[in-house]
Amino acid sequence: MKNIAVIGAGTMGNGIAHTFAQSGFNVQLIDISDASLEKGMNTISRNLDRMVAKEKISETDKSDTLGKITTFTNTEEGIKHADLIVEAATENLDLKLKIFKQLDDVCNENAILATNTSSISITQIAAVTSRPEKVIGMHFMNPVPIMKLVEIIRGYSTSDEVTNTIMELSKTLGKVPTEVNDYPGFVANRILMPMINESIETLYNGVAGVEEIDTVMKLGMAHPMGPLQLADFIGLDVCLSILNVMYDGFKNPKYAPCPLLVNMVMAGKLGVKSGEGFYDYAESRKAEKVATQFLK
Ligand SMILES: NC(=O)c1ccc[n+]([C@@H]2O[C@H](COP(=O)([O-])OP(=O)(O)OC[C@H]3O[C@@H](n4cnc5c(N)ncnc54)[C@H](O)[C@@H]3O)[C@@H](O)[C@H]2O)c1
């Protein structure tokens, strides 16, 4: 594999592009918006600067990495020579189904189609293509250049050969791939989201305050970040949508989102990205502080 197309230059897409380029792959980074591409490339450049400052890479490594990435707003142009496509566009079922139909029509017949979705069924996405055996989940964690895990999700029809190829490829990125099957929430979110939901329920029931709940989990369980702060960081709307996918998928009330979470999302309190969630991020400096703490 040489050419990797990444669809979406947002939070995850730029991190995925950075990671592949730093490992020597040619990356075609695609987004519908020029502004997102520019912002994504600036983020990659800033993250590489931080690595240079920490003497993890040289200035030459930085310019080599940036030189491996080409940007496109025309998807067809960007994907036509790709051996692997990693889709990291907005989390929306209809959008992903549309993208995968287009990928299937345009990409060369041997190309593997991967998605970074946090919660949408790989099997459902694969079913709109004529190559379901070549569709797989590659669930990178945020921030991608730093986090070691890639949750590799096999859809119902994903072949052994494709799974093995993607497992080996992830290792060449310096990641630790872990194979799981395609059920709602996969493994990461199936375990993380109920913990976050329970911490919101604990707050809702008046057992303890925001900082107390986070302190118990940080200092008592050695979590780098409390669950409420983590929920703010992920986005409360994202947490709600993943819980709903699990609630609908398993028909099990244990995944029912806490009414406080539902109310906060309806009120537009989405966490860091909206300036307020369980914590107040009104001053942008404060929000940055949270993100930097997490990166350490
Ligand atoms: N943010 C996280 O922590 C996280 C973690 C793991 C997985 N994910 C998953 O990664 C994916 C991307 O999430 P994100 O947080 O990076 O979102 P984001 O909103 O930061 O970025 C999404 C990007 O996709 C672009 N886009 C939308 N439609 C497109 C199209 N048709 N073609 C090309 N680009 C298009 C948007 O312009 C935007 O730049 C989602 O599926 C999400 O569930 C997110």
What are the defining features of this structure?
oxidoreductase, alpha/beta, 3-hydroxybutyryl-CoA dehydrogenase activity, 2 domains, binds nicotinamide-adenine-dinucleotide, 6PGD_dom2, EC 1.1.1.157, Rossmann fold, 6-PGluconate_DH-like_C_sf, 296 residues
Report a brief summary of the structure.
This protein is of the alpha/beta class.
Task: Summarize the biggest pleated sheet.
Answer: 8 strands, mixed
Strand order in the largest sheet? 3-2-1-4-5-6-7-8
CATH architecture of the largest domain: 3-Layer(aba) Sandwich
Number of domains in the coordinates? Answer: 2
Structural class: alpha/beta
Summed over residues and divided by their number, the pLDDT gives a mean of 95
Ligand species: nicotinamide-adenine-dinucleotide
CATH fold topology of the largest domain: Rossmann fold
Oligomer: single chain
CATH top-level class of the largest domain = Alpha Beta
Discrete helix count:
13
The shape is: globular
User: Helicity, in percent?
Assistant: 40-55%
Keywords: Oxidoreductase
Pfam family, one: 3HCDH_N
Family: Belongs to the 3-hydroxyacyl-CoA dehydrogenase family.
InterPro entries: 3-OHacyl-CoA_DH (IPR022694), 3-OHacyl-CoA_DH_CS (IPR006180), 3-OHacyl-CoA_DH_NAD-bd (IPR006176), 3HC_DH_C (IPR006108), 6-PGluconate_DH-like_C_sf (IPR008927), 6PGD_dom2 (IPR013328), NAD(P)-bd_dom_sf (IPR036291)
